[in-house]
Write a structure and sequence with these properties.
The protein is of the alpha/beta class and 288 residues long. 46% of the residues lie in helices and 11% in strands.
């Protein structure tokens, strides 16, 4: 090819300059033509992992999953391969609505016992909760109330409803209390905002009867419940943003599936690359 171009009065170097291809790159591809790609199997595995994790993982998390499987590989190489294959998470588009249940002081407002201390070495010692709202197809909305353990970021219990009634918070609370009876080793604190649900007498009385400390964020201070806000942000980015609006039932199914995946499969850097359930299980086995 280079010889023919020369005969016509053009130099290969000039052609490559015009099309913007480095000469070294050209010669690399010429020499590699017809040879088997040494990264073929690795590319297949990376593509498999990317799809396995619902296209929610970037190159750093994919690298950690490869290392779990015994592949000692640099994250820069994974980044290069994913870029070459066009594997990129793009779930960062439409935003959901932040639900605000604050209606003033209509019941008991508790002190902020947590005081932004969002870590603990003990399971079920510190729990956080809040309500978020999603828009569905048509005029319907979906309300989610999870209870999250700050020990490992696991969702201990949750409820989904079409309306933000008191049952939205009481049902997961009762489920959580059953877990506490069998597994809590230290007295539990549960933290929330000052929404009317958490000021309600039934919520306050249930916590007191079960010897659970109540804690509340200061008014209009989202940072006091940053761990819960962070979970909502991850949920939105990985499951909701960029997706078409669907019916309430379809979205409910997706949220339920996501929370199960988040608890059991989604790796977390601060948990040494383990999922919340894997971390809890491994820690309990080590303690035993």
């Amino acid at each position: 090819m280079a010889f023919e171009l020369k005969e016509e009065g053009f130099r290969l170097k000039d052609i490559l300059f015009v099309v913007g291809i480095p000469e070294a790159t050209y010669h690399y591809h010429v020499n590699s033509f017809g040879k088997e790609d040494p990264d073929t199997k690795l590319k297949e595995l990376i593509t498999h992992l990317f799809k396995k994790f619902y296209e929610r993982y970037g190159y750093k998390r994919i690298t950690k999953e490869l290392k779990k499987l015994g592949h000692l590989i640099n994250h820069k190489k994974v980044y290069r391969i994913m870029r070459e294959l066009g594997l990129k998470c793009v779930k960062f588009m439409r935003k959901s609505r932040k639900y605000n249940s604050y209606k003033g002081t209509i019941g008991k407002v508790a002190e902020n016992r947590l005081s932004r201390r969002f870590s603990t070495p003990f399971p079920l010692q510190k729990l956080v909760t809040d309500i978020t709202e999603f828009k569905c197809l048509g005029e319907e909305k979906l309300y989610l109330n999870p209870i999250l353990d700050l020990y490992n970021g696991e969702i201990v219990a949750f409820e989904i409803r079409k309306r933000p009634t008191l049952d939205l918070i009481m049902k997961p609370l009762k489920e959580t209390l059953e877990v506490l009876k069998n597994h809590a080793t230290y007295r539990t604190t549960i933290h929330s905002d000052q929404g009317w649900h958490y000021q309600h007498n039934q919520w306050v009385r249930t916590l007191k009867e079960n010897k659970v400390f109540q804690s509340m964020s200061r008014k209009a201070t989202c940072a006091d419940n940053a761990s819960m806000e962070n979970f909502f942000g991850i949920l939105n980015q990985e499951m909701y943003y960029g997706e078409k609006l669907v019916s309430y039932e379809e979205l409910k199914s997706r949220v339920e599936e996501y929370i199960h995946w988040y608890n059991n499969e989604r790796s977390k850097t601060k948990l040494s690359g383990l999922s919340p359930v894997e971390y809890r299980t491994q820690s309990s086995q080590s303690a035993a």
